[in-house]
Amino acid sequence: MAVQDRGERSRRSILEAAASVFDERGYDAASTTEILARSGLTRGALYHHFPSKEAIAAALVAAQSEALMVPEHPVRLQAMVDLTLEYARRLRSDPVLRASVRLTVEQSSFNRPGMTPYRQSADAILGLLREAERQGEMLPGVDLEELTQFIVGAFTGVQLMSQVYCGRQDLMARVSTMWRLLLPSIATPGVLMRLRTTPPPSVAGAEGDGVREGDAETDGTARPPVTPRAPWG
Amino acid sequence: MAVQDRGERSRRSILEAAASVFDERGYDAASTTEILARSGLTRGALYHHFPSKEAIAAALVAAQSEALMVPEHPVRLQAMVDLTLEYARRLRSDPVLRASVRLTVEQSSFNRPGMTPYRQSADAILGLLREAERQGEMLPGVDLEELTQFIVGAFTGVQLMSQVYCGRQDLMARVSTMWRLLLPSIATPGVLMRLRTTPPPSVAGAEGDGVREGDAETDGTARPPVTPRAPWG
């Protein structure tokens, strides 16, 4: 048990060290020597867990899907909004997720994951949109596949621009803007006016524990829900 | 005169050769030796125009702004849509523009341009939105700065995803989707129903200019202009 824990801990140390190096330098310029120095482990320990730099990168990219946990909210469009807000929040706080996104967006000599990470995000979004449609939350005539592709693409670009402009300081606000502009084209009016495009109060307030996911939106009762800005409404 | 022409031609040869190398390998892995081999010029000619690899990259990034030509259309929201469609078309056909975008999106040892290319795009879009507002095309209450940032970010991510999925084969269709989803939140109903989200027939139909790359989705001439899907209208 203790041995297993230690193994898991050193694997995580390597991933975190590699993430910070990849995040700073990109894949090609990152060296295993620097990753080792930051992790404080021996080269033997590194190769025990990962045979190559490429294997570390692959493990980092796989970690991206962990950030795609679907919240429980009964209104599925709200769950979708909250999923992206929580993802944005984690992008700001989690170097492993940041490195994973950088490896996805950039081409490098790393045999890059190509579509897989986009597909994982798209699957999560499309699943939520289908549930939303079944529950009558969607306006008729919206092409869910097309919409999914746009949401994933737009989110990717929005986080990239937020990173370039200000190191993702304003990422949550940019994601809120995206939803305020997009939801009026997809949600029925009755659902639209009840959707919140900012983080639920409990998540927005709770910064103490690094582990919890977006499961707190059920106590969104503290604040009245913010209705999206519907310019014609 | 002839000498100047030759100078301009060899400068352009270097940029095109460099663009193809950067587009394939990224900045860090690109070598001036390979750029030279592709341009067919001497090293002396290369250094006559550009003192370093970094100087070539900077010239490529500067070329991006040339693709931001604002169309003449009297409806300024239509001009904005057409600007992005034309930019998308050029991205597909022009390796210099593609390399420029890659240099912008990726971090590398190139002292990267950071915000500048995003700012140039944002300036063009914001200018058009302000004119659209003055002409009464915009719904009241839309924050033009915020909207501009979203449009530039969304376009960036949409073209990135199209590149990863299919080498930008479906880029025009994805840009059209973006506008169908976004315009209902920003345009007044009267303007909305007259907006076209596919390339103008003249661009789509013009085969003789030697520049276009024969992309199938632009021959939308057979179809009547598609009005954006306004789910409530």
Strand-pairing-aware structural class of chain A? mainly alpha
Main sheet: strands, sense, barrel of chain A: none
CATH superfamily of the largest domain in chain A: Tetracycline Repressor, domain 2
Low-confidence stretches of chain A: 205-233
Task: Characterise this structure.
The structure is a homodimer of 233-residue chains. Chain A is mainly alpha-helical and 233 residues long. Chain A contains 11 helices and no strands. In chain A, helix 1 (2-29) runs parallel beside helix 6, helix 7 crosses helix 8 (144-166) and helix 8 runs antiparallel to helix 9 (171-182). Residues 205-233 of chain A have low confidence and may be disordered. The interface between A and B is large, with 46 and 45 residues.
Topology (elements, then pairings):
The structure is a homodimer of 233-residue chains.
Chain A: H1 2-29, H2 32-39, H3 43-49, H4 53-63, H5 76-93, H6 95-105, H7 116-134, H8 144-166, H9 171-182, H10 189-192, H11 201-205
Helix pairs in contact in A: 1-2, 1-4, 1-6, 4-6, 5-7, 5-9, 7-8, 8-9
